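Per reviewer request, we include the raw input and output of the structure prediction for the construct analysed in the revised manuscript.
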Amino acid sequence: MSDQKRFHATNPFASPEVVEVDRQTFPNVPSGRVMWSCLVIGSVLNLLTSISYYTNPDIYLICKVMWSVPNFLYGIVYGLGLALLTHAVVHRRLSTLAPGHWRLIVFLSILGDEVVPFVSLVLSTVLYLVFPVVTKETRVWRCHAWVMAVACSCDMFGKGLAMVLEGIQANGIRSLLGKYELLYRVMITINWGLIVLNVVAVILILLSIRSDRKANIPRDSCHYAGLILIVLVPWLHLAVFQIIIMLAAYE
């Protein structure tokens, strides 16, 4: 009998819920060959999606160099997600993926936007709804996934609404100009809601890590990489983007 089940069997005041978390003897991490191969593939795919930026003669060299840092990290994240997904599918271990693994795999969906707009948000929403079902994780981690699914859905709706507003403003559609202000307020409300949802998601991550440590649930390095990089890389991207805009303003 596991420690958690024994605790619930001997403690009459314990919650009736039995938290089932897969405690593997060996971490669910791909082999070195698979990992390095996927890191190379992820970096190449990322480079192909941004090659037009680096070959643009109108962009200063300093901007290209600065952008190389977050761009390199994007390739690493794609590679890690691809390696974990490949390992899980080949060895039929989708049910043993840790929450950090989910986030790395979900991040792969961003590449889909290069083919079809909004596909990344659709896939992200679906995956964040599926992973809590196919894996055995604690309630806090499941709540985190559900919050992320709602955030992705809101983001998708907000971006679609922004495109509609841009079309109204650019084309001057008189029949819709009266509704422009209302739609704009809805978009602003969604954006504020996204901020709140992201803050809640971060809080849930911290609570989940604390819960894992209390329960002595083992987590591998890829799990923590998924928790950290998925937050760090987009923020670094945004920071570099703002610096590049400032440099362009002083041109």
